[in-house]
Design brief:
This protein has about 220 residues and is an alpha/beta fold. The protein has seven helices and seven strands; from the N terminus they run H-H-E-H-E-H-E-H-E-H-E-H-E-E. The longest helix is centred in the middle third of the chain and has 14 residues. Bound molecules: S-adenosylmethionine.
């Protein structure tokens, strides 16, 4: 297993959003945060040999981080086709040989089957066996009005699809995330604080960059 810094370096080539949409909260996860999240997941046995799904993949940062750690397969899902085009280019830049697919879909209504359906023998190619599913995501926080509670809907998809999930939320989300997990057959098994260094990319940002306090949660789903 490579080090976190080696993984962050490989992810340094991932290009960001060309024309970020504020309503979709399109800002990139910094490579060091993405590398740390994937490294933690890998140490827990949640990446190598697993099916990894990145909800709201954008230009593919988390999906490609997972792709560099020997997963069975990776699926990156985003509602906007533009960043998915960049994600495909990023896949070439990163140089992974993993089985990676990019899917345009609403991650709150993903066209992938739930765990229950897949174990019943559904023929969806993304669920052709009993391989555990790890969801990774840095969803919209719901900070913009049009997206209020967006992270709740993403968590609901994780509850439906994932064996375990790793999700980035804004700081002070622990009560919300823990009670959501509790109510939906999950349990938070790990949490840590992180900082999101965001470039200035929207008109209402008045500094060249800003740091947002965030928290990352690992949830094990029943
Ligand atoms: C905060 S960005 C994170 C991007 C990327 N995961 C990363 O780590 O750099 C949130 C992403 O969620 C996507 N998104 C927002 N609403 C969505 C939805 N309903 N379904 C799928 N993707 C969505 C946005 O287009 C955007 O790419």
């Amino acid at each position: 297993m490579s080090s976190v810094s080696a993984l962050a370096q490989r992810l340094g080539v991932v290009a960001g959003f060309e024309d970020p949409q504020v309503g979709l909260e399109q800002y990139p996860t910094p490579p060091d945060l993405a590398a740390h999240l994937i490294h933690v997941a890998d140490l827990q046995g949640d990446v190598e040999g697993q099916r990894v799904i990145d909800l709201g993949t954008g230009t593919g940062m988390l999906a490609l981080g997972a792709a560099l750690r020997g997963p069975a397969s990776v699926v990156g899902i985003d509602v906007d086709p533009d960043p998915l085009r960049t994600a495909r280019e990023n896949e070439r830049r990163v140089g992974t040989t993993a089985d990676v697919s990019w899917v345009r879909a609403d991650a709150t209504d993903a066209p992938l089957r739930s765990r229950a359906e897949s174990s019943a023998g559904a023929d969806d190619p993304a669920h052709e066996d009993d391989t555990p599913t790890t969801v990774v995501m840095n969803p919209p926080f719901g900070a913009q009005n049009a997206n209020e509670h967006a992270d709740r809907a993403f968590l609901a998809t994780a509850a439906r699809m994932a064996t375990v999930s790793y999700s980035v939320h804004n700081a002070d989300s622990s009560n919300f995330v823990e009670s959501f997990a509790d109510d939906n057959g999950g349990a938070v098994t790990r949490a840590y604080g992180a900082e999101l260094d965001l470039p200035r990319q929207f008109e209402f940002h008045d500094a060249d960059s800003r740091t947002v306090d965030a928290e990352v949660f690992r949830i094990a789903w029943d």
